[in-house]
Amino acid sequence: MRNEIKINDDVKLIMTNDEFRYSEVLDTLEKATFVRIVTYNISAESKQLIEKIENFKEDKDVVIITNIPARFKKYTSSYAKNRAKKTIANYIDKLNPEKYDANMRTFFNFGNHSKIIMTDAVAYIGSANFSDESKKNNEEYPEIFQDLDLSICEEIITYFKRNSKLEKFSRFDVDNKTSELFEEYASAGNPEKIDSYAQVAAQNASDIQENLITEIYQTSLDGMKVIKKTVNFLLSILKMLDKKKAVNTNVDNT
After folding, report:
1. What is the Cα–Cα distance from 143 to 127, expressed in whole angstroms?
2. What is the dihedral of CA 146, 149, 150, 151, to 10 degrees?
3. Per-residue tens of pLDDT for the chain, all 254 residues
4. d(Cα 237, Cα 239) in Å, to the nearest integer?
5. pTM for the structure as a whole
6. Helix, strand counts (H, E) of the chain
7. Which of 217, 215, 203, 216 is nearest to 174 (CA)?
8. What kind of architecture, by CATH, is found in domain 2-148?
9. With contact defined as beta carbons under 8 Å apart, do 37 and 50 qualify?
10. Could you tell me if residue 70 is left (phi over 0), alpha (psi between -120 and 50 degrees) or otherwise beta?
11. Which of these, 46, 34, 48, 7, lies nearest to 146 by C-alpha position?
12. Which residues lie closer than 8 Å to 79 by C-beta, 6 or more apart?
């Protein structure tokens, strides 16, 4: 089942049951020059959507950003820990760029819950993941497609990608880095200069930390800009909906 409400020539709301809500995007995959996917999860077993990516040729530019469900910093049971280990291994294997012909880049962002699926022709922003199971969801939600200006979608994806790279920064420990650098310098240097190696290692580790902090700060500023643009983008859609509602009300009153 599929219901559509046209907002204007570029935007429409989609409500579906037992089919992909982003079928318009899937229809453009073959001819698209680039594909961008932000999702909370992918299918654990089914491969209907993954096979579409497997069929991409070398000239297709693909970026996939996903969370990994069931992954936590701490686990309360061995069952949960083993399940997470299996899930992580499955995601790494399925999304390994070396397994695909396309120019594919994969990022894992453990704070992501967004769903954006887009090509250079059309974009989907909604609640359905890039997973085969998403079409089986019996609940109906309005979904948004944008046909022309997709720059905001690309900016959101770029931000999530950068934030994914910054995941390692949150685990940075200056003391551990100092020890690592010291061992590296000492093993390749003069034993009589151990003290100087320790000082250099401490300084270099501190410099690395300072550079990471600077980059994190800049990324936060960029993120605020993206959020502001996203809010304006959504506000413009709400205005379109209000106008559409007003038109429908006038029609009903005639």
Report:
1. 7
2. -150
3. 666 666 666 666 666 667 787 888 899 898 999 999 999 999 877 788 999 999 999 999 999 999 888 877 777 788 888 888 888 888 989 999 999 999 999 988 888 888 888 888 888 887 888 888 887 664 444 344 444 455 656 666 665 555 554 455 555 677 788 888 888 888 887 777 777 888 888 888 888 877 776 766 666 566 566 666 666 766 676 676 666 666 555 544 44
4. 5
5. 0.57
6. 6, 8
7. 203
8. 2-Layer Sandwich (3.30)
9. no
10. left
11. 7
12. none
Q: Hey, is 251 helix, strand or coil?
A: helix
Q: Which residue has the tokens 């046209």?
A: 6
Q: How far apart are CA 253 and CA 223, in angstroms?
A: 45
Q: Which two tokens stand for residue 47?
A: 């491969």
Name the nearest CA neighbour of 130 among 56, 16, 23, 33. Answer: 23
Q: Are 57 and 101 in contact (CB under 8 A)?
A: yes
